[in-house]
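Hi everyone, sorry if this is the wrong subforum. Our group has a chain we'd like a structural model of before ordering constructs, and none of us has done structure prediction before. Sequence below.
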Amino acid sequence: MDQESTEHVNNLLNKVADLRDSIYEEGTKAFKKWENEISRDAFELSAQNLAYYLALRRRDVRDIQSELTPWGLSSLGRLESRTLNNIDAVLASLSAIAGKDSRWSYPSQSSYITGQEQLSKNAIEQFGKQPQNRHTRIMVTLPSEASTDSKFLRELIACGMNVARINCAHDNTETWKKMVDKVRKAAKDEQTEVKILMDIAGPKIRTDWVFTTLKKPKVSPGDRWYLTKDNQTLPLDFESKVTAGCSIPEIFETLKKGDPVLYDDGTIESVVDEVTENGAVLKVKRTRTGKSVRVKAEKGLNFPKSQFDLEMLTAKDKDDLGFAVEHADILGLSFVKDADDIKKVQKELIHQTNKQRAAEIPLMAKIETVQAVENLPAIIMTAASRNPFSVMIARGDLAVETGYSRLAELQQEIMWISEAADIPVVWGTEVLDNMVSSGVPTRAEVTDAAESGRAECVMLNKGDHLPEGVAFLSEILEKMQEHQYKKTSLLRALSIAEDK
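Answer:
Right subforum, don't worry. Here is the predicted structure as tokens:
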């Protein structure tokens, strides 16, 4: 090796060594703050690795990555699962190249895959055993008809459903009980395991009711409509095509002119034109179709620029939680903002059951706001320290809250942070949406479905062609399993590469 190369590899060795030392010091300090809160032994190593990974990601190491590549070494682009082990392997190789005795040794094969194995165990605990031909499970949101149609449920299971999701924002305990019983029976008939997730609605802001003098209450770009917190009095002095009641009146306390308000995952984009005593006048900027859109009751409202504090669990949520504890395998938590929200749920679970039983219940936090993304490490630490835990990337509300241009970036960040903590991820919202609705997928949907195989579970929503959608997704996931795991491309032999 010439003098220039020797000097370069020595400088690079020092850079990576300094990086390793600073990550170790910072990560160890952070872990010690968390350590006493961890009551689940299975999470201790995962929490430690998360602390090191977060310390790394506070730094820009792109220059080091580009310098490592010409030496045939790992560029550190795949170190979520075991951060220090990967850096140690690079340091051992650099030391060998430089001809120096190393204070770092190569990790054992078993220690290198510890994180991957723990993630697999956690996924089984959350979503059940891994299907035979794919490592990614399929979750299906059940329609109301599932409470009466056993044949439909058996078809879903035969097509590949592994987790049945019951959305507690709809129907009631009587219907949910029928769904649970029929899912259990259908799974037994099909001689397989199907986990049941009950998704607690949380403080979702919705339209409570809609009033209009029109036959069809539609609004178009340029129209104004009225959102009110007063269920008793209509704004008769305001000429509006539509007036809608808001389910959570607290939002009006911080609402101001110019704030964006989005209806039904951005189907209608409005801004506050005027704040009144009992509500707000909204002006429609655009609609998803560019044409008029009908305003309906029980549709979601998002306020991306408005800051307001809502209780994590409503009175209804607490009642639903009591039912879910008795009948569900997983509790889904909607609109989690921070670690305090998780603590409130854990406290309520102890109140509903007991400390031991509360700690056994698997929790799943839906990440659907900017605030939740920013607080994700603390959410994971608080939840997984006491309970089996997973996260869902709820891309519908998340896209509305953050803007579509940031969604791709944020969903990757959520997956990286989760993998560093060995936390299973659910890839949710609008997966094969057109396929499930019409029976025919779009090209973009197929690509999205293939990308979803990087998660431990993928969620499909309701539609007329749901069984076909489940079967099609299962086929895609089986094919992609041979090519990719997380961020790693799996280099199986390709027929296209054969010498013709």
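For your construct planning: The mean pLDDT is 91. The longest helix spans residues 3-35.
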